[in-house]
């Protein structure tokens, strides 16, 4: 079966599921998305107003809302987070006079942006640590060369959606200040960090000189991002946004869906984070009850409503077993794809779990039962033609 057919089958199984623990937003058809937006938009913005043109109207209202939520002087909407980050780092390099960016090798800037901060913005990076965790204050103080900007991804997705403690984060920021560097937060998922830190969004954002946030990674928006910070920085950022091709004629669908996410999903994130702890514990219990020789939920107690699950089985086999579970029982446990462990460790795979609205009805017993049902399908040959 081709990769395209496998993906189509997996999405169809997910869409046909009556219970979904993780991955519920994948494969939502256009008509449903449009209906959703039409239903929620009237309570968010004046539907008799004209569509935005080059960043005014509803886009400007979204920028104001983000600045209010983060306690920043101003914010600018960007079509992508990659562009927002490049512009932020470029602006800070010009202001500090130092083009060196201190960052983690697992950060989004290094792994998913094709070295844009180097290739497009002419900057260079120095790694804060090679450990799969957030850097410490001591590591920042001991970096062997000066740097103009320290960027911190909160949470660090590729390390397991990890966060430092609040005290550790404050110390890391203070260490950067001691080195006369500015601090930029890659806060694509900053919205979901308040429970772990025990403080509000404004207090978190106040530690940084600038903050980037996403509208689809935590909030379920269509697309888009915002860069927030001092008004002088944001005005300069808007100039570079234009130069980078990011001042789009109309962006009202993305802006409306972002406002909907701030209204609908943001208040629910603490509930998701709390339930993620229940789900993570139940998964560990389920693997133990099923006699899995080795398994790991990472982190053991999730820092946000997202975490990793590691199992000693082939990635394609796990993905196929999950698809069959959904087809045969209308229950999706892990909606995302399983991936081989980094470094090509044979027979070791991981997936990412996001505990959101569809997971709240799941009890610990439900999770343990679904784990057993998934693992049963790893050893059972599939009938000819697939699907059950």
UniProtKB/TrEMBL annotation:
Its cofactor is pyridoxal 5'-phosphate. Keywords: Lyase, Pyridoxal phosphate. Residues 55-285 form the Aromatic amino acid beta-eliminating lyase/threonine aldolase domain. The keyword Lyase applies. GO terms for molecular function: lyase activity. It comes from the Bacteria. Belongs to the threonine aldolase family. This is Beta-eliminating lyase-related protein. It comes from Streptomyces luteosporeus. The lineage of its organism: Bacteria, Bacillati, Actinomycetota, Actinomycetes, Kitasatosporales.
